[in-house]
């Protein structure tokens, strides 16, 4: 069975890079050697912070696209396994209000 991996890297400038691959170990080597992405090549060293293994490439692609749209705080909550924060950072302000404005 073939596997696909969605991953989040922490770059030297503290930014996150989200990617997808079918060979995580090899892809990390490429990133570390500046061969995988112009983005990470300029922000070495990198460190793997999180990954998810999928069996369906369509699932992996959908998850990667979803993660790329997330805020930094939401990605940090995922990486740290802080599920309550993940939910909190997912809430839509138009539906739930802005906590900063609710106390005015």
TrEMBL record:
Coiled coil: none annotated. It comes from the Bacteria. Belongs to the UPF0213 family. SUPFAM superfamilies: GIY-YIG endonuclease. InterPro entries: GIY-YIG_endonuc (IPR000305), GIY-YIG_endonuc_sf (IPR035901), UPF0213_domain (IPR050190). It holds the Pfam family GIY-YIG. Signal peptide: none annotated. PROSITE patterns: GIY_YIG (PS50164). This is GIY-YIG nuclease family protein. PANTHER family: UPF0213 PROTEIN YHBQ. Residues 2-77 form the GIY-YIG domain. It comes from Geojedonia litorea.
């Amino acid at each position: 069975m073939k596997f696909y991996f969605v991953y989040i890297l922490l770059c030297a400038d503290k930014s996150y890079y989200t990617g997808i691959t079918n060979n995580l170990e090899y892809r990390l080597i490429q990133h570390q050697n500046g061969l995988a992405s112009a983005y990470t090549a300029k922000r070495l060293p990198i460190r793997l912070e999180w990954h998810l293994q999928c069996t369906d490439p369509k699932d992996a692609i959908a998850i990667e696209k979803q993660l790329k749209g997330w805020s930094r705080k939401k990605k940090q909550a995922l990486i740290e396994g802080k599920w309550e924060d993940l939910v909190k950072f997912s809430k839509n302000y138009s539906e739930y209000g802005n906590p900063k404005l609710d106390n005015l």
